[in-house]
Request: fold
Amino acid sequence: RKEVEQDPGPFNVPEGATVAFNCTYSNSASQSFFWYRQDCRKEPKLLMSVYSSGNEDGRFTAQLNRASQYISLLIRDSKLSDSATYLCAVREGFLGNTPLVFGKGTRLSVIA
Amino acid sequence: GAVVSQHPSWVICKSGTSVKIECRSLDFQATTMFWYRQFPKQSLMLMATSNEGSKATYEQGVEKDKFLINHASLTLSTLTVTSAHPEDSSFYICSARGGAFFGQGTRLTVV
Reply:
């Protein structure tokens, strides 16, 4: 199965900082793109889908560059509660009957 | 709302025994369930895809005789780790609707 690559970190940032995560994927047939958040020993939780036009949800902004096969996540005004592992995921299809392929995740620690 | 309920959340078993993990879809029907495994500091790796009423599809390198998957109804998929060994210790998690819903995960420790 084609891969998804992420910088594993850890990223240690102070509260209020802006932090950016990058992800590259090798499968050019990928059609759907996501960022998940995973807390220690828990299931991943969907943070946001990623669209070519870019999308924003509060302090979180995601971007997709299909030509470069690159996905990014920007977190502004970091909070202590943002400390977690952020997983990039891609899927070949648009529908839920094809599986997600995950990156290894990037660990973020926000420090007071 | 729609939820995938997975249990047990953790289990410790002796080498050579078998462990069954269940995932139930609540309030929706899951014709497909994905089973993942995650080792410490590693990615969630797809093990197999279970389809209601048909045989599961296993990823390369995953032994189908060791990891038995059954998807007998539209709301229940099970993964049985047979003859478990310490190297099978991992976090196992199911997912429905292409990642829209995850079970809570099962932390398996084989001693």
User: Anything to note?
Assistant: Chain B has no helices and eleven strands. Residues 18 and 86 of chain B are 12 Å apart (CA to CA). The radius of gyration of chain B is 13 Å. The interface with chain A takes residues 31-32, 34, 36, 41-46, 49, 59-60, 91, 93, 95-100, 102-105, 107 of chain B (CB under 8 Å).
